[in-house]
Amino acid sequence: MADRRRVAVFGAGYIGLVTGACLADLGHRVVVRDIDPERVQTLQAGDVPIYEPGLGDMIARNKERLTFTLDLDEALDDAQVAYVCVDTPPSVSGDADLSKVWSVVRSLAGAADLRVVVMKSTVPVGTGARARAALDEAGLTATGYASNPEFTAEGRAVSDFMNPDRIVIGADDAAAGALIAELHEGIDAPVVTMDVRSAEMVKLASNALLATKISFANEIATLCENTGADAEEVLRAVGLDHRLGSHFLRPGIGWGGSCFPKDSEALRQLASNTGFHPMLLSAAIDVNNIQKRRAIQKLKDALGTLAGREIALLGMAFKPGTDDMREAPSTVLASRLLAEGARVRCWDPLARPATGEPWSSATRYASPEEAMDGADAAVVVTEWAQLREADWARAVERMRQPVLFDGRNLLDPARMRELGFTYMAVGRL
pTM of the entire structure? Predict the structure, then answer.
């Protein structure tokens, strides 16, 4: 496949790597630039610093078209399109910290060949207008600007990029929008074009709605517990309604990851900044925060006290198929357990927890069975397939107290109780 466009991607994090690799796979020549020497060196050596199915193979097979650099000039050399893929974490005020975005935009001054700057980072509505002004100030008045939000889920990000439900492009001129659409040629998906502000809102609104569905499912699960109904059966039937759909109608211990918590809070902050209180969104966030603490209360109800108890957390990453610990429910659970005086054991096949508390006070084991040996209770935190296949018969014999809270409704309640567990789940009796 011949090279088509020359693309610079700024940021070798999760979204930057997936974006760069997929664009290279579509035939474009891509240079990914990052300011972290260790990360760039790792990528140049052929290693991928994050776990994402299919990403390593895609990077390897496109090594002739995909390169990594620390050098700004190398990234911009002949580049026609520049993607901004840096992180935008919450600031102290709760607003998105756009310092890295503005650093990238300022660095583009003098890049005369650039035809379009594309914002892939999740930013507040209105950022595009400020970016347009900054580009003009940098002398890039002839360079277009576009918002091209990402809708990739960790664990299937490569597939989501190459087989999306839609490609959203918000552009300040038709030529810029057409060029971004051209970059995606080879992908069979509808291209939805709109103004920049609307495109910025689409990402925030999409994640807020998904987060709200999860919180709704958890509210129904609590009501099911109080009334004797089975949340799994109730929500399965609800999801069969074609008007509603079954996606994200699964009760559990709450959402996590890099998108739902950050984007929901960002949208709430954006609304507050306009003088509007988003009651439904605020309630969804509150439900999610409470859900993790309900898990702790269930353990206290079963054990009487958590002080001195050994609790095994089965799963640490915020979802299966990833090593990502950002906003993982396990971190909240571990922190609360330690605060209650419990000792925390943990298992996960991929997770890379940050240094420091709570994980410096937890003991990590190589298998679920080892984590449960001698434990007073175990909590299914992440729905890893390995947990379905775990030796639960061994676990019930070797636990000090066979208390099991299935925070993902992963296991068969009848079987667990038959084995001898005091089995608890979310919305199931």
Answer: 0.86
